[in-house]
Specification:
416 residues, alpha+beta, nine-stranded mixed β-sheet, five-stranded antiparallel β-sheet, 13 helices, 36% helix, binds zinc ion
């Protein structure tokens, strides 16, 4: 790469201003953003984004699930574009950076190329994926999942929010049911910049996370059936206590995840006692289990060990425990060439960096099944995300955008 090109940098102040300009759409009193997918606030930011793309000379396409694609022509229009972007929707009490940084940094990359008068060999497509967060409609990351064929478009269009409004109705109400069939906007590769949403980069003083993998997920629904009886008159030895059983399962889960660590985590995040009462021994409990690892063999071992532990506990306590696996997402291993391209860009720019695993799900994890994909992480304050106090520095956001810029340049090539 020639010297002028290797010195090319995004406009840090412009990126920062853009992040804060769009944060007013759905701004909360505590400094966060509430921009549920396909809401009035989402329409505001989408309209803003569409205009910004058009002002940057991009051709904007919207697919049947509302995902937005801004295409910048390359010299060779026959090649599928290099995709970059993330999402503009937020959690109900979300922050200013989760998803937004990756989408607006993609716009900043285009603006920088425009300012420098650079034509790439391969086209570039900046993306805003609908409903990454999953807080209004389930599942999360539904548009990128449909894009790769995990769901049909009609299935997703019929999903309802808590008020009974379907995705299709919500799209129509804000005018974002586009005419591009889902999955037909061509992408030759995809790179997503995101805040880490974890504490590792900050703790190690690293600026860039070169994301090489994403965790696989096991979700279970469990039910414990013991026997309700009087808290005063039932001797301890004769009880079939569902909550005491769950307590053992929680500790077994913790021990099993630790045994398979450091690359394994396990959480029981929901537990509901049916008909709870102070003086009744709990007879029935519904609970969930969430286990994650980047290693498929470890996921299998977690499943096996958990089921064995639960069988032993339930037999000893004479209670019935059923466990249904409701979701299994295999681990993501991002494309090695793209991961190297991200790492090389970080190196060339002189940023401290390390390889890292994504603990959270991202659209990039879905897309990786069909398209060579990679991710770039930057630190966020105290690792906090999905919270109005979510914070990141201007310098780190700019560094991430610069890595994105140079990764895209290496993938798209510069027309000579
Ligand atoms: Zn996100």
């Amino acid at each position: 790469m020639n010297r002028a090109l290797s010195n090319l940098q995004i406009d840090s102040a412009r990126l920062w201003d853009t992040i804060h300009e769009t944060a007013k759409f759905g701004a909360t009193k505590k400094g966060g953003v509430r921009r549920l997918t396909l809401s009035a606030e989402d329409k505001q930011v989408r309209d803003w984004f569409r205009k910004a793309c058009e002002d940057a000379g991009l051709e904007v396409h919207v697919d049947a699930l509302g995902s937005m694609f801004g295409v910048r022509k390359g010299r060779d229009t026959s090649k599928p574009p290099v995709g970059l972007g993330s999402h503009l929707d937020t959690q109900p009490t979300g922050g200013k950076y989760d998803g937004i940084l990756g989408t607006l940094a993609a716009l900043e990359v285009v603006r920088t190329l425009n300012d420098a008068g650079i034509e790439t060999e391969v086209p570039i497509c900046i993306c805003n994926w609908t409903n990454e967060e999953g807080s209004r409609f389930a599942p999360a990351m539904m548009a990128s999942a449909a894009y790769v064929g995990d769901f049909t478009t009609d299935d997703i269009l019929s999903r309802k929010d808590a008020e009974g409004v379907t995705v299709g109705e919500a799209l129509d109400s804000i005018g974002y049911r586009g005419d591009v069939p889902v999955g037909t906007q061509k992408l030759g590769s995809f790179v997503e910049l995101h805040i880490e949403q974890g504490p590792i980069l900050e703790a190690e003083g690293k600026t860039i996370g070169v994301v090489d993998s994403g965790q696989g997920v096991l979700w279970y629904d469990g039910k414990i059936t013991g026997f309700e009886s009087h808290a005063g008159s039932t001797p301890m030895a004769l009880r079939r206590d569902a909550l005491a059983t769950l307590s053992e399962i929680v500790l077994a889960m913790e021990a099993i995840a630790k045994k398979h660590g450091p690359n394994a985590v396990g959480t029981i995040g929901e537990a509901v006692i049916a008909k709870p009462s102070r003086n009744v021994i709990p007879g029935e409990i519904a609970f969930t289990m969430d286990c994650r690892s980047t290693d498929g063999a470890i996921m299998d071992a977690l499943d096996r060990d958990l089921r064995a532990a639960i069988a032993e506990i339930s037999a000893r306590r004479k209670v019935e425990v059923t466990v249904d696996l409701v979701w299994r997402k295999p681990p993501t291993h991002f494309n090695p060439k793209l991961v190297d391209a991200v790492e090389n860009a970080a190196k060339m720019l002189g940023y401290s960096h390390r390889r890292i695993t994504s603990g959270a799900g991202h659209d990039a994890c879905n897309l990786n099944v069909k398209i060579p994909t990679a991710m770039v992480f930057v630190p966020c304050k105290d690792g906090v995300s999905h919270n109005e106090i979510e914070d990141a520095t201007q310098g780190d956001c700019a560094a991430g955008a610069n890595v994105l810029l140079h990764t895209v340049l290496s993938l798209a090539g510069v027309a000579s």
